[in-house]
Design goal:
Blueprint: E1 20-21, E2 32-43, E3 46-53, E4 60-61, E5 64-65, H1 73-85, E6 87-91, E7 97-104, E8 110-125, E9 137-140, H2 142-148, H3 152-169
Helix pairs in contact: 2-3
Amino acid sequence: MDQPRSTRCHPLPHAAPILVSEPPSTSCEATERQYAAIPVRIRDGHLQVMLITSRETRRWVVPKGWPEKKLNARGVAANEAFEEAGLIGTIHKKPLGTFHYFKVMPSGKRLPCAVDAYLFEVERELEDWPEKHQRERRWVSPSQAALMVAEGGLVSILLSLASMAVDEEG
């Protein structure tokens, strides 16, 4: 099976770092770190973002995961795009921004997490991938994606992408 590439970087013309950061909705400080990919493609001249469903709650999310000893942050994000969404592509060197959310563990415990989100330019969409039977995936506009996700900081990042896409088209 193909593996993700995490070292090449050729940014989209409109993909400067957004650097959106939003604290959790409570006074809790984030105790855990995760890394996310924001998968994008250009289709018929329009920017699209891929969202996937979470395994447990079926909420719309972006691929994300925990740090791994043998991978840097970008490598984790690219690997999650492959495992969770079946995507091969190029991950950008700097995160677009950071968002916060609470990861609900099987025990019911809520862990406050900070997630560094990296733009991931999709080059190939696989028909078969490790979590295919556990998730749904969908391409949508950045503004539609912002309406579908629950994490406020991720909404901000997606709206910034939508704004940049409109600026590029207009």
